[in-house]
Specification:
With 264 residues, the protein is of the alpha/beta class. The protein folds into two domains: 3-48; 58-262, Vaccinia Virus protein VP39 (Rossmann fold, 3-Layer(aba) Sandwich), CATH 3.40.50.150. 41% of the residues lie in helices and 20% in strands. The protein contains eleven helices and nine strands. A seven-stranded mixed beta sheet has the order 5-4-3-6-7-9-8, sandwiched between helices. Helix 6 links the parallel strand 3 (98-102) and strand 4 (121-126). Helix 1 runs parallel beside helix 3 (36-47) and helix 2 (22-32) packs antiparallel against helix 3. The chain is globular, with a radius of gyration of 20 Å. It starts with a helix and ends with a strand. It binds glutamine (GLN).
């Protein structure tokens, strides 16, 4: 078979499995594969709707290259909006800021912030030890290990009052009943614990926002990722927790994606 015929067959295989961006996915697979047998294997996995990030084992996020496994949520480009929002409000970029990221997963948000704030140090908290192992590898992979600490915890439980300049989170926020309607890549392959926000998707925000308020220093900033229809409800919870200057930022697709505010 010619190169073109082989490519057409692989693309056909992906398309008949319902993959929209078949040509894009194949390009990534061809770049990563050692030989045709390896491509065959990767295409077959993708046709079974395994996420491309799990097949390749990594995913670019911000300027970083991150290791990704089924133990962590695959970083989404939408989440870069959260990083941008924090940086926009960060003021003096060379300050010795203390940052924490709750439900850090792959470490994506924390590591992106540390890469832009050269004197900041960060804490990434997650309930999952296997996620933290990936986050630590990602810190080393990107040369940020000296400024990043990752530890297990239940959200902000172990963090002292008034101790942080910046607190961020991309918590699980999808309504439980919606998860089974999502694409198979998400529904069958990503950690449910990173997605499931309870009956109304708001479960975590209710306790997390008061906790973020507690651990921030005065003038400290919080930013959380939200679902496209949660801006009003999450802003109201942020206000009730005491935050001021509450704002919503939209992602590149135009959807509300981040709620942020500061402690007075
Ligand atoms: N944005 C993710 C998705 O739709 C959800 C991430 C989350 O719940 N924090 O797949």
């Amino acid at each position: 078979m010619t190169d073109a015929a082989r490519k057409a067959r692989w693309i056909g295989q992906l398309k008949s499995a319902g993959i929209g961006e078949a040509a894009v996915d194949l390009r990534h697979i061809l770049l990563a594969a050692a030989d045709d047998a390896h491509v065959d294997d990767m295409v077959a996995r993708r046709a079974r709707r395994e996420p491309l990030s799990h097949i390749l084992g990594d995913k670019p996020f911000w300027t970083l290259d991150l290791k990704v496994t089924p133990d962590v949520l695959t970083p989404r480009s939408d989440t870069e909006t959260l990083v941008e929002t924090v940086l926009k409000h960060a003021g003096d970029k060379s300050a010795a800021l203390e940052i924490a990221d709750f439900g850090t997963g792959s470490g994506a948000i924390l590591l992106a912030l540390l890469s832009e704030l050269p004197n900041a140090s960060g804490l990434g908290v997650d309930i999952s030890e296997s996620a933290l192992a990936i986050a630590r590898e990602n810190a080393f992979r990107n040369g940020l290990e000296a400024r990043a600490v990752f530890r297990t915890g239940n959200w902000a439980d172990s963090v002292e009052d008034n101790s942080l300049d910046i607190a961020v989170s991309n918590p699980p926020y999808i309504t439980s009943a919606v998860i089974d309607t999502l694409e198979p890549e998400v529904r069958d392959h990503e950690p449910r614990i990173a997605l499931d926000g309870g009956d109304d998707g708001m479960y975590v925000y209710r306790f997390l926002l008061p906790e973020l308020f507690r651990i921030l220093k005065p003038y400290g900033r919080m930013a959380v990722e939200i679902g496209y229809d949660q801006a009003e409800a999450v802003s109201a919870l942020a206000g009730a927790a005491g935050f001021a200057d509450i704002a919503t930022t939209r992602d590149l697709g135009g959807q509300p994606r981040v709620v942020s505010g500061h402690k007075p």
